[in-house]
Specification:
The complex is a heterodimer. By secondary structure, chain A is an alpha+beta fold. Chain A contains eleven helices and ten strands. Chain A folds into three domains: about 110 residues, Acyl-CoA dehydrogenase/oxidase, N-terminal domain (Butyryl-Coa Dehydrogenase, subunit A, domain 1, Orthogonal Bundle); about 110 residues, Butyryl-CoA Dehydrogenase, subunit A, domain 2 (Beta Barrel); about 150 residues, Up-down Bundle (Butyryl-CoA Dehydrogenase, subunit A, domain 3). The chains are: A alpha+beta, B alpha/beta.
């Protein structure tokens, strides 16, 4: 379908597709098998200018928005969402600085993130704080002009491989939701170390580690925004980043659909290509329709969110929720279309099915997305004077 | 440093067919690509530019107007400027007439310190244009180069891969080098360079702009003339021997005997 992209947006798509085809696709099975961090691909992506798509030109970026970033993420994800997540997670780590960081923090960190010279990461989740962000235990205690961090972050994407971390810590527990603050941490800060690399069902090219803070001292100029703004920074960051997770889902679904259709046209059973059977046709038709619907939602949502509307959370949640479910469905059906071959590691769809599951879990489970959408509906309709009965 | 890279558009070798009636290459519907070895030449030049930011890389090609697309592709990978050498008079050129045209362009560019070519084009496979161009420009050349290092302002250290072994040469500048794939995998485009390539002006130089005699270029300036092109007939009745070596020897012996080879 034609989405009326500008010439520049078309170029972004073409370039990301070329990287996916020539560099990622030939390596994805090996990266998955070896759980290797894709440094070589990070270098290729850095050289391509894609890391800076959503970062203003003043900070070394390309001056685009969520939509441009989604176009790139989607194409990379067609080949491998492990690699695409490594790419997108740097943006998740950068958004707090971009949205709320001081001019000095922006100048210090954004140009390197935009150029891909340094990767960023986002540190919120803890063992006791997943969906319930208010449960975080990591503390940052004021000491003169410094803060001293203690605690452990869990399942941090790019953890250990990134250089720049946006980390949420409690600065004043008595203030409840206004008692949390974001800090920029750098790899190498004294007292900041990493836990072991997690072994995962899928997304194995992406690295996931603990961030461990033991009397880690940082100066107050590392605060993102102001003390106590942490939860607002987190929510606004998710509003910007969630369509990107949707784009990962669209890309994964398209990648699985491409393989399923190509296979169904070639696979002969009962003397005919299996695509001639209605059972297979209907599967492929549902997969294609769902994928296109997810894409249309992400594109429309990303464009809308780039217009800086007052309420972003509902649309951002929808853009994350639907494509994630679609990706899981399409990848599972692709395995079914390929049958026994689909189940074998010699073919790429079993990896896609393992990878897809994370899209319903990370960056807010799909249940949490439904909660957000439900709460926003309640608020929206509460403001209406009109009755529809 | 100013580096000139010479490139050529060739038919995508994956889709080449010969028309059995005319015995010529079927070019219709066959996509053109940049000769793969020329992409290594572009990469070699960009590597030098990476280490010395003041380096300027200009890419030239002789070809039809569509060849401008190939030039733009090199700009999208980081090349600074491109010039298209295009004129009806250039058509039908052999390697000598091609080198004559390229040499005129390099002279017109002036201040050139280094010319880099791919070791050969995958369509003609002659590997002649590089050395001929150097000869016409009266500069030294080194072929089959896999590594280039700047020594001082006046010399280059180049490593050649030959069938006999590896040779390390000190080459005075200006010089011409032809490169092999070991020089480094060609980089992909970047978004900024792609945007620049889209807008870039690609000047077109013809016979007049290059100050060339139309009789010395193209078909009339060519020493070689293609008399006939044909596909060799398919060899029929081939039998593949399979199994252990002993079994294969037995089979071969049987075949030779059946064929009544004298002495068996």
């Amino acid at each position: 379908m034609h989405y009326f992209l500008t010439e520049e947006q078309q170029m972004i798509q073409d370039l990301a597709a070329q990287i996916a085809r020539e560099k990622i696709r030939p390596q994805r099975a090996q990266l998955d098998e070896g759980e290797e961090f894709p440094w070589e691909l990070v270098k290729v992506l850095a050289q391509s200018d894609l890391y800076g798509l959503y970062i203003p030109e003043a900070y070394g970026g390309m001056g685009g928005g969520i939509f441009e970033n989604c176009l790139a993420v989607e194409k990379l994800a067609e080949a491998c969402i492990g690699v695409a997540t490594t790419f997108a997670a740097s943006g998740l780590g950068a958004y707090p600085i971009l949205l709320y960081g001081s001019e000095e923090l922006k100048r210090r960190y954004l140009p390197d993130i935009a150029g891909g010279q340094r990767l960023a990461a986002f540190g919120v989740t803890e063992s006791g704080a997943g969906s319930d962000v208010s449960g975080i235990q990591t503390t940052a205690v004021k000491d003169g002009d410094d803060y001293i961090l203690n605690g452990t972050k869990q399942w941090i994407t790019n953890g250990g491989d990134a250089e720049i971390y946006s980390v949420l810590a409690i600065t004043d527990r008595s203030k409840g939701p206004r008692g949390a603050t974001f800090f920029v941490l750098e790899k190498g800060d004294p007292g900041f170390t990493f836990g072991k690399k997690e072994k995962k069902l899928g997304l194995r090219a992406s690295s996931t580690r603990e961030l461990v803070f033991q009397d880690c001292r940082v100066s107050r100029d590392r605060i993102i925004g102001r003390e106590g703004m942490g939860f607002i920074v987190a929510m606004k960051t998710f509003d910007k980043s969630r369509p990107g997770i949707g784009a990962l889902g669209v890309g994964l679904a398209q990648g699985a659909l491409d393989l399923a259709v190509e296979y169904a046209r070639k696979r002969i059973q009962f003397g005919k290509p299996i695509i001639s059977f209605q059972a297979i046709q209907h599967k492929l038709a549902n997969m294609a329709t769902q994928t296109e619907a997810a894409r249309a939602l992400v594109y429309a949502g990303a464009r809308f969110l780039d217009s800086e509307p007052a309420d972003m959370s509902k649309v951002a949640a929808m853009c994350k929720l639907f494509p994630g479910d679609v990706a899981m469905y399409v990848a599972t059906e692709a395995v079914q279309v390929l049958g026994g071959y689909g189940y074998m590691q010699d073919y790429p769809v079993e990896k896609m099915m393992r990878d897809a599951k994370i899209l319903q879990i990370y960056e807010g489970t799909n249940e949490i997305q439904r909660n957000i959408i439900g709460q926003e509906l309640n608020k929206e309709y509460g403001r209406l004077k009109e009755s529809f009965f | 440093m100013h580096i000139v890279v010479c490139i050529k558009q060739v038919p995508d070798a994956k889709n080449v067919r010969i028309d059995p009636n005319t015995n010529t290459l079927v070019r219709q519907g066959v996509e053109s690509i940049i000769n793969p070895f020329d992409l290594f030449a572009v990469e070699a030049a960009l590597k030098i530019k990476d280490s010395d930011g003041s380096t300027r890389v200009t890419v030239i090609t002789m070809g039809p107007p569509q060849a401008a697309e190939a030039l733009r592709e090199t700009i999208s990978r980081g090349v600074d400027d491109a010039v298209l050498l295009s004129d009806r008079a250039f058509a039908g050129a052999d390697t000598w007439a091609t080198s004559t045209t390229l040499a005129a362009a390099v002279r017109k560019l002036g201040d050139v310190d280094l010319v880099i070519c791919g070791k050969q084009a995958v369509d003609g496979d002659t590997a002649q244009v590089g050395p001929e161009l150097a000869t016409l420009l009266d500069i030294p050349y080194a072929t089959f180069v896999k590594k280039i290092e700047a020594l001082d302002g006046k010399h280059l250290k180049v490593i050649r891969q030959t069938d006999e072994g590896v040779e390390v040469w000190k080459v005075p500048s200006p010089a011409l080098l032809t490169v092999i794939k070991e020089v480094g995998e060609p980089r992909l485009p970047s978004l900024r360079h792609k945007m620049r390539a889209k807008k870039a002006e690609v000047p077109v130089w013809g016979v007049e702009a290059l100050g060339l005699d139309p009789e010395k270029v193209g078909l009339s300036g060519s020493y070689t003339q293609v008399v006939r092109v044909f596909s060799p007939p398919r060899r029929g009745n081939r039998v593949m021997l399979e199994g252990a070596v002993e079994e294969q020897v037995e089979q071969l012996f049987r075949y030779l005997k059946e064929a009544k080879v004298p002495g068996l």
